Amino acid sequence: MMKLNTLVLTGALALCMGLAISTHALAADAKPTPAANVDTDGDGIPDQAEVVLGTDPEDPDTDGDGINDREDPNPTFLENPHAKDGAPAPFVIVKAQVEDNYDFAKKKDAPDHFELLVKNNTPADLVGFSLYYSVTDVKTGKVEAYYKKLGQFAVPGNKEARIHFDTTTPGPARATAAKEAGHFRANPNGSYYKTTNAKKVLFDFKLDGYAPVQATVEKAEGGAETND
Ligand SMILES: [Ca+2]
Ligand SMILES: [Ca+2]
Ligand SMILES: [Ca+2]
Ligand SMILES: [Ca+2]
User: Fold this and answer.
1) How far is the CA of 122 from the centre of ligand 1 (A)?
2) Exposed, middle or buried: residue 72 (CB in 10 Å: 0-12, 13-18, 19+)?
3) Å from CA of 32 to ligand 3 middle
4) What is the pTM of this model?
5) Ligand minimally distant from the alpha carbon of residue 143
6) Do residues 178 and 166 make contact, with C-beta atoms less than 8 angstroms apart?
7) Which residues are placed with Cβ below 5 angstroms of ligand 3, an ion?
8) Is-contact 179 172, C-beta < 8 A?
9) Least confident piece of the model among 62-66, 98-102, 169-173, 191-195
10) Euclidean distance between CA atoms 83 and 79, whole angstroms
11) pLDDT in tens, 113-130
12) Cα 89 to ligand 2 centre (Å)
């Protein structure tokens, strides 16, 4: 079974790499593309092939399951790793948004992205969150899922905090955006950004040692990748 998966993956990769190379060859006459064979994240898949595969060229493990994109039989899916039980969470999800977002810091509309508003119900700061989320394409039934540990992201005692999954820009702009508190990277080649079909999004948000808290939200057809 592993061998079959590997063969299938290798075939898909060869196809994608072939597409990337032929695209480059066509473009080469008009304008050389020096970045054609660049593998920014070092996972063994060139950036251009990652676009075709639907994986993230700036993340060697797009779905966060610990398996490198090149070795992962399904690089944009994993089962939910969160334990279902545990003590009641000391926070609530106030709001889950997938479109019509508003950047409160910059006081203007932001491009559609995932966003959670979380409220800490205790006086102590909370740190140690992880998020599992799935995106189901209502039209095709295809499901993508991702897992992220949110590192030092903190929700201050008795306060609210926003978490944005909107860092999809490449290169230096990404590095700048990643430094903003509460902003995390999302797969720029995932279905959320690449198709305008309606989506169902499930968030499973967990603080270490506690039961997860879930929220679901539906994204209407159309509107992907554009500002409100
Ligand atoms: Ca790569
Ligand atoms: Ca990658
Ligand atoms: Ca993976
Ligand atoms: Ca996977």
Assistant:
1) 42
2) buried
3) 32
4) 0.78
5) 4
6) no
7) 61, 63, 65, 67, 72
8) no
9) 169-173
10) 11
11) 788 999 999 999 999 999
12) 33
Distance 69 CA to ligand 1 centre (A): 8
Cα–chain center distance at 105:
22
Q: With bands split at pLDDT 50, 70 and 90, how would you rate the model's confidence at 36?
A: low
Partnered with residue 144 across adjacent β-strands are: 135
Token pair of 101 as six digits: 């977002």
- Note whether 17 and 52 are within 8 A (CB): no
Query: Which one of the ligands is nearest to 45 CA?
Result: 1
pLDDT in tens, 52-88: 999 999 999 999 999 999 999 999 999 999 999 899 9
Rounded to 5 degrees, what angle do the CA atoms 64, 71, 206 make? Answer: 15
pLDDT at 104: 64
CA 92 to centroid of ligand 3, rounded, Å: 29
